[in-house]
Amino acid sequence: MQETTFMILTALAAGSQHGYGMITDVKAISAGRVQLKAGTLYAALDRLRADKLIEVDREEIVDSRLRRYYQLTPEGAELLAAEAAHLQANAVVAMSRLKPAAGMLA
Q1: In this structure, which of 54, 67, 87, 97 has its CB flanked by the most CB atoms within 10 Å?
Q2: pTM value?
């Protein structure tokens, strides 16, 4: 799974959000490492909807513009959990191999 996809799904794991909310949330939870552009986000949202990992929660009009809120589907939550577990397992192995190497980590 690409990091962008992982971060979008992670942002939605906290609850329903609209596009700009996801952009700011992803930036915050990635400590600024992932900064989504609107075009990148909306292309990813279209793909994630087509894959049935997210769905539209609701829509509202704000300042004469449509604001669409997205949420994880059960399939999306399951895939995110599996990917998080996979990343965690890989990180545990990497950290265990790094610790003995010349006292690199405390």
Answers
A1: 54
A2: 0.87
